[in-house]
Amino acid sequence: MPAPHEKPGQFPFTRGIQPEMYRTKLWTTRQYAGFGTAEESNKRYHYLLKHGQKGLSVAFDLPTQMGFDSDHPMSRGEVGKVGVAINTLDDMKTLLKGIPLGEVSTSMTINATASILLCLYMALAKAQKVPFIKLQGTIQNDILKEYISRGTYIYPPQASLRLVTDIFKFCKDHLPLWNTISISGYHIREAGSTAVQEVAFTLANGITYVEAALKAGLEVDDFAPRLSFFFNVHNNFLEEIAKFRAARRLWAKIMKERFHAKNDRSCMLRFHAQTAGSSLTAQQPYNNISRVTLQALAAVFGGAQSLHTNSFDEALSLPTEEAARIALRTQQIIAYESGVCSIADPFGGSYAIEALTNEMEEKAKAYIQKIDDQGGVIACIQNGYLQKEIQSKSFATQKKIEAKEEIIVGVNAFTIEKEEKMEVQKVSPQLERKQIEKLKKFKKNRDVKKVETSLSKIKEAAKGQENVIPKILDAIESHATLGEIADSLREIFGTYKENVTL
């Protein structure tokens, strides 16, 4: 049980980071969207904003995430498929056309190329004459979980951490309202981890980023208040609520006791939550609306600062407009009709929740100790410990499902013989050709010598200790492409190849 005197908004923030929580300010409804071209994605953003979304959340296609332009051979067949293709400043201008950057909070789910996308966003803000100090948003920028669970890394871990800390330093001085990292447990859970592993491995990654920033010469209270987190929300309702409370309390203690943070804001675990993509089923897809509603409620009871609710058709395709609207309305019904926002911590004092919170905190602490004993997260990535732990739990869960020890409605129980056909969102096969043509035109109408000079400055900065972010921003404004900038860094840092035996 929390100490009798502990209230919401008080260290260690088990009961929430604000005294009033949603009574005075609701979470941000931030629906993750992006597909095809910048033009198509821009239409979807305006559609969601028109229907009450409060913040943008941008999904990028795999080539953009991996630092390849749309005309690169590695991009073939993947342009615009799982997100929007962004190669140039022109693409970014089109993506955010008609959206005032000084008024809207923008989250960008990008990691290996986070520095480049942030600079594209800043270059667009400069073109709109929006001061950097007004920019609000988040870049995911969590490269460690890519090595652990997702795979969209480019550079070796130490070089990637260098880019992360360069962003911390730059934003401290120039983008004070920007969240410089969203330390993500979401993808760890999607890979098959347990709730405890999600908390432990995510906070262990957070510890690694804090250590890297301190080593780079930053003071803990200079950057820690802008750290944010990103968690999954699965179906076990009470466990998920307890998970968020345990993560918040454990992080607060880590920051105060391990890193000696003096500012309470440095100890606050602020998080975005997204309902579980891996829980969605292609069978009887309308059942997913119920799943998403329960998961969203768990995030709200757990004290999320922002929330994305998945669309019911995502196991079949990119979301249709109707499905995206239903997902958004799910949040709005919880916020405005359910009454759950009138109490700061509705489950506080519940024997079940408090016992689960304590249990999850202790188990997560034990995992973090095991990681520390092996030399930290990077050592555990290189020896395969983290990957093996997740794979083991994922395999065990799948065996339970196949044995019907764990029921998935519509999949291994309560099935129907004939599934109803549904309309699905499709990406035009012509999209890739159009994107490449646009890129060729962009390259043709620029000063090549100016581009080459700006890229050489990035390489020089990367070789030494100079912060690379201003050089990347200059290159963007000189009309270098995302792929060209990523290649310049590849030339200096090299590329990472996983060599563990699993």
Q: What is the annotated CATH architecture of the largest domain?
A: Alpha-Beta Barrel
CATH superfamily of the largest domain: Methylmalonyl-CoA mutase
Average of per-residue pLDDT values: 94
Shape call: globular
The total domain count is 2
The end-to-end span amounts to 40 Å
Along the chain, the helix and strand elements come as EEHEHHEHEHHEEHHHEHEHEHHHHHHHH
Tally of helical segments: 19
Q: Would you identify the regions where 5 or more consecutive residues have pLDDT less than 50?
A: none
Largest sheet: 5 strands, parallel
Please compute the radius of gyration using only Cα atoms.
Answer: 22 Å
What does this structure look like?
The protein is α/β, with parallel strands linked by helices and 502 residues long. The protein has 2 domains: 21-383, TIM Barrel (Alpha-Beta Barrel), CATH 3.20.20; 431-493, no CATH class. The chain is built from 19 helices and 10 strands. The strands form 2 sheets. The chain has a 5-stranded parallel sheet. Strands 2-3-4-5-6 form a 5-stranded parallel sheet, covered by helices on one side. Helix 11 links the parallel strand 9 and strand 10. Helix 1 runs parallel beside helix 3 (89-95). The chain is globular, with a radius of gyration of 22 Å. It starts with 27 loop residues before the first strand and ends in a 9-residue tail after the last helix. The model has no long low-confidence stretch (mean pLDDT 94).
